[in-house]
Specification:
The chain is α/β, with parallel strands linked by helices. It folds into three domains: 95 residues, Beta Barrel (OB fold (Dihydrolipoamide Acetyltransferase, E2P)); 138 residues, Rossmann fold, CATH 3.40.50; 54 residues, Ribonucleotide Reductase Protein R1, domain 1 (Orthogonal Bundle), CATH 1.10.40.50. Helices cover 27% and strands 21% of the residues. It has nine helices and 13 strands. The strands form three sheets. The chain has a six-stranded mixed beta sheet with strand order 10-9-8-11-13-12, sandwiched between helices. Strands 1-2-3-5-4 form a five-stranded mixed β-barrel. Strands 6-7 form a two-stranded antiparallel sheet. β2 and β3 form a beta hairpin. The longest helix is centred in the first third of the chain and has 19 residues.
């Protein structure tokens, strides 16, 4: 069922009402009686912990109910909400309510769904942890897609090689070579193991400074990492853990919706559903170029303004590859991403 199309006057009135709600909350003034025509509770701030189907889990940020989680619906005139959004909501019972306004975001990570429609995944994050593992096989092209997204949104990226115990047993030269390329670019790479506890404390230190979204393929162990970070005292909030698909060496989907976790003594993280593709068709070629951090010193340095960086004389990127400042693999990945921009 499609949403009713609103007139410009109706949209303006809705925006003014939402701005009025946020102004009242910031000034800590009580809501006016006419602001609750549906006889709902007072307007209070909240945090989207999880969004699934038509419902959301909202953690109350009001002093009298802080930390309590309520099952809520959202007003149809609001934009699509994402885990991590800060909202204004009203209770209609002891455990349910209605989200009536979206507060300002500092960032929003989105991705196309199966119908190629861009959907929000995580809001108000400051960093992204790209989790890979020896199995399922990691692909540099997928990592590069996430890195382009991170650069575009201004998020601090971290590449996490999980299940390092299995990696040490296999001594996979290809993975080591791939990680070396990212390290040379300047991206931090962290090796962790939930079974052996390797790197967990270092990961906690990184998380303490940020609200981080975990991304990566299904089966790389994101949910296991969440459980290791939560510790033994948070079992009731633990993330579900799945196995590898038999015979296909691909992960099974255990996280079906992005969920936010508060880590004891650390920051917040959002565990997102695992995927095998991450489309960038909503970006333009310049945005993809800007998503390759090592390309930036050579932006605008080519002899020709419309240089395609493939075979033109005086190409600054090609010269940088020849001199060893840019890896041929990263340049090839850039061209591969450009070829996917048309949906």
């Amino acid at each position: 069922m499609t949403k009713r199309r609103l007139s410009q006057q109706q949209r303006g009135r809705i925006n003014r009402n939402q701005e009025d709600r946020q102004t009242r909350l910031r000034s800590e003034k009580p809501a006016r009686p006419e602001a609750n025509p549906e006889d709902l509770g007072p307007e209070i701030p909240g945090l989207v912990i999880c969004h699934f189907g038509q419902q959301l889990e909202i953690e109350s940020l009001a002093p009298e109910s802080v930390g309590q989680v309520f099952r809520c619906f959202q007003r149809t005139n609001l934009p699509s909400l994402a885990t991590g959004d800060r909202v204004i909501w009203q209770a209609d019972s002891d455990s349910t309510g209605v989200v009536v306004a979206l507060q300002d975001r500092i960032s929003l990570m989105s991705r196309p769904n199966q119908q190629s429609v861009l959907r929000p995944v995580a809001a108000n994050v400051s960093a992204v942890a790209i989790v890979i593992a020896p199995l399922p096989q990691p692909f540099a092209n997928l990592i590069d897609r996430y890195l382009v997204m991170a650069e575009h949104l201004g998020l601090r990226p971290l590449i996490v090689l999980n299940k390092v115990d299995a990696f040490m047993a296999s001594r996979d030269v290809d993975i080591e070579s791939m990680l070396a390329i990212y390290a040379c670019v300047g991206y931090p790479v962290l090796r962790v193991s939930c079974k052996q506890g390797v790197g967990i404390e270092e990961l906690k230190r990184f998380l303490a400074e940020h609200t981080v979204v975990f991304v990566g393929q299904s089966g790389v162990g994101k949910s296991s990492l969440v459980n290791a970070l939560l510790g033994d005292d948070s079992q009731e909030d633990s993330a579900l853990v799945g196995d590898m698909s038999v015979g296909r060496e691909k992960g099974t989907h255990t996280t079906t919706a992005a969920r936010l976790y508060h880590l004891p003594g650390s920051g917040d993280l959002i565990d997102s559903p695992g995927i095998r593709e991450f489309g960038l068709w909503h970006m333009d070629p310049q945005m993809v170029f800007d998503g390759f951090a090592e390309f930036q010193p050579y932006r605008g340095a080519c002899r020709f303004r419309d240089c395609s960086h493939q075979q033109e004389p005086g190409c600054a990127l090609l010269k940088a590859v020849e001199e060893g400042h840019i890896s041929p693999q990263r340049l090839a990945s850039y061209f591969a991403l450009l070829s996917t921009l048309t949906p």
